[in-house]
Amino acid sequence: MVTVSLRQIYRCQVVDQNREVVGTVDDVLFHPRDPLAVGFSVKPFRIGGVVPLPQKYLSFHRTAFDSDGRLEVVLAEDIVDEKKAVKDANAAWGTKAERELGFLWDDTIIYYGQAVFTESGVYLGKVSDARFDIESGTINVIQVTAGTAADATLGKRTIPGKSVLGFRLEHYGILVEDSAAEIPFEGGAAESAGKAAAAASDAAQKATEAAVKGIAKATVYTERAVRQAADSPAGKKARGWLDSFVEDVKEAIKDEENE
């Protein structure tokens, strides 16, 4: 599955069947109920760079990404006749595309900024981004923000597509499974602090282990040095003197006892 995010496709160039640039993507449009991309709102270039043109709507299933990463209008089938090709390409736009979709463009949903609720009615935040399959339009994940302050401290939730149920008019928002409320936040200061604390703890443990190993190594070196010193000429001489001194003390003690 190849996916693209809302942020990535925003302002992506749109080319017609003749590979001429006709505008840029303004928004991704989703099914009125299902978590499925069905089209794009396209912002045409201004006439002469000055006069604006009305927004256009393009069917998702009549497009594909070309080798330059642009959104290209594709024909429903291989058509050689130029007039038929133009007619077929026009069917990808506006009211003609609505008939193919089975609902109006005004009924489609823009996911970005939509409120997100669990089935139990728990508010989780708003959609800050989403990823969808570029071939089928199926939602892969949605990213949910609880606000700027929460993002900075806690981060955001990334909810998998299988947990996204789609838009619900009764909630006026995106509905997700209750299990989505258990998904941990990612990317906030708390997570960074946790990672830093874990890293510090690991570093402290390694430092302690190194110190213990250092002490043990020093002890071994000391014992080895003592043995080497004892075996040296000076060590042997000192040991001989100590042995002689001990013997003299013993003899003195015996003499006192005999008296």
Structure description:
- It is a single chain.
- The strands form two sheets. Strands 1, 8, 9, 10, 11, 12, 13 and 14 form an eight-stranded mixed β-sheet that branches. This protein has a six-stranded mixed β-sheet with strand order 5-4-3-2-7-6.
- Residues about 220 have low confidence and may be disordered.
- Helix content is about 35%, strand content about 30%.
- It has helices at about 5-10, 80-90, 95-100, 150-155, 190-230, 235-259; strands at about 5, 15, 20-30, 35-45, 55-60, 65, 70-75, 115-120, 125-135, 140-145, 155-160, 165-170, 175, 185.
- It folds into three domains: about 5-105, Roll (SH3 type barrels), CATH 2.30.30.240; about 115-185, Roll (SH3 type barrels), CATH 2.30.30.240; about 190-259.
- With about 260 residues, the protein is of the alpha+beta class.
Strands, helices and their partners?
Blueprint: E1 3-5, H1 6-9, E2 13-15, E3 21-30, E4 37-44, E5 56-59, E6 63-65, E7 71-73, H2 82-90, H3 94-101, E8 115-118, E9 123-133, E10 139-145, H4 148-153, E11 155-160, E12 164-168, E13 173-176, E14 186-187, H5 189-231, H6 233-258
List keywords for this structure.
alpha+beta, SH3 type barrels, eight-stranded mixed sheet, 3 domains, 259 residues
Radius of gyration: 39 Å
- How many helices in DSSP terms? 6
Q: How many DSSP E strands?
A: 14
- CATH secondary-structure class of the largest domain: Mainly Beta
Shape: extended
Helix/strand-derived category reads: alpha+beta
Total of domains: 3
Low-confidence region ranges: 218-222
Q: What level of helicity do the residues show?
A: 25-40%
CATH topological fold name of the largest domain: SH3 type barrels
**Could you give the order of the helices and strands?**
EHEEEEEEHHEEEHEEEEHH
